[in-house]
Structure formats: structure tokens, C-alpha cells
Amino acid sequence: MKTLKATPCGQTVKVVKIENKGPIKRRIMDMGITKGVDIFVRKVAPLGDPIEVTVRGYELSLRKADAESIIVE
């Protein structure tokens, strides 16, 4: 299993699971990131925070800690 944080730029991955519970999981799901959705990694900042992604046609910025909790294939 790999996380969204470990995904290189320019790659599209599919979400398998969101590890966190409670408000953090709710915040991630409110962005439209749910099981089975495709995420395209557009850009990663030099220090790894934030990670810019495209989900369902929307461009989003994710914190590194949030990206670690998204398991992808």
C-alpha cells in the first residue's frame, strides 16, 4: 500500500481508503476525495507541503499530513 504523499508528480492514482477518523476524514471527504475516485498529482512543493491535486475536475491543495492518510493504488 502506498499513500498519496508518496505518489510522484504527473501520475494519476485511485483512492483505496482514507485512514483517519473524525473531523480530518470529514474534511478530506468534503473535498470530494472518497474511495474509488481518481486523483491526479499536479505539483508538490519543494518541501512536500502542500501537494496540489486535481479531483473530479477541481484543483485542490492538500496538506502533507492529510496526504499521508489517503491510501492509493
Automatic annotation (TrEMBL):
InterPro entries: Fe-transptr_FeoA-like, FeoA, FeoA_core_dom, Transcriptional_repressor_C. GO terms for molecular function: transition metal ion binding. Residues 2-73 form the Ferrous iron transporter FeoA-like domain. Keywords: Iron. The keyword Iron applies. Pfam families: FeoA. This is Ferrous iron transporter FeoA-like domain-containing protein. The lineage of its organism: Bacteria, Bacillati, Bacillota, Clostridia, Eubacteriales.
